[in-house]
Amino acid sequence: xxxxxxxxxxxxxxVLVRVDFNVPLSxxxxxxxxxxxxxxxxxxxxxxxRGGSAVLMSHLGRPKGGPDPKASLRVVAxxxxxxxxxxxxxxxxxxxxxxxxxxxxxxKPGEVLLLENVRxxxxxxxxxKAFARSLAKLGDVYVNDAFGSSHRAHASVxxxxxxxxxxxxxxxxxxxxxxRTLLDDPARPFVAILGGAKxxxxxxxxxxxxxxxxxxxxxxxxxxxxxxxxGIEVGSSKLDDMDVAIAMDAMAKARFKRTELxxxxxxxxxxQFDAQAPSRVVEESIPDGWxxxxxGPETARKYGEVIRAAKRIVWxxxxxxxxxxRFAEGTRAVARAVAESGAFSFVGGGDSVAAVEKLGFADRxxxxxxxxxxxLELLEGKxxxxxACLSKP
Length: 393
Prior knowledge:
The chain has 393 residues and is α/β, with parallel strands linked by helices. It folds into two domains: 166 residues, 3-Layer(aba) Sandwich (Rossmann fold); 199 residues, Phosphoglycerate kinase, N-terminal domain (Rossmann fold), CATH 3.40.50.1260. 37% of the residues lie in helices and 16% in strands. Strand 3, helix 3 and strand 4 form a beta-alpha-beta unit. The longest helix has 16 residues.
């Protein structure tokens, strides 16, 4: 277990907070979606209301070892000020150094300082201890509220906890509580839905969930590796030999641990990867020259029956190329079944989160995770560096 913000006395203290402000930007440099900023507000506002000041650190994009105006957090500072109109939100053009330390020291209770992108310093991603110590000088206590970055052993995520009393923010706590509910709740049937491009990307998840779940439903391009492993032809569908070998091993483990593994029985296929390409439904095998881009209607019906009977559901990865409306029906059917199930449902992974939001089912899912990579590693049974570093109560 770890301490949370509620365990800290922040009155009169500078609270160094790792947030996830890695927001999408439009071509003109403006913020196109401020969901991640809004998600951090409960933690920030609690610190300010309890008499502390907040020093916020985050990354944005993937700058290559130095300052990049296109990855500056200055635009985020402006948006944060709009979201906190009664608070002073200041911006530091760097995240370490004498001027930054001076700006942090000048903060009054109730004020916010957002630091420039920590990835402008290559030491951040290396987890450099000296860089972490420089960041730690800016606060009296440390709070991690960046679930989406907590699988990274970076200086601003886990390194600073070595030098400051530390705790989890409300967003991080909510994510971990949801995950504990998913795995610790004895309610059954427990169903896992896995999709996406490659089996190799999800092999750790499959290995960890086999034996824990009652049924494992496979969709997306990764389904074709399982089908090929079972001797079914998949035409020109996306596939590689390593994925087939991994799928064959996973199928053997599922049989051994008596986990029901369901694969598509029909497919929506086309001859070219295009949003407007003509398509048709085929059963079982896929003909030469055709590729599967979605699960078929009979598969969607069967998956829906299993999902609606579930008491716990975890979903990571879409059933097809949902970005193309013509090939979104399988993902839509699964999303609808999850919404109608009444189960505790956990959706993680960027594509599956985007799918439930695009298709209009987000408000009917129990928990939508804010961190794709972090949620994937939790599903693999791994410990997150950004959580392991936090102080014990």
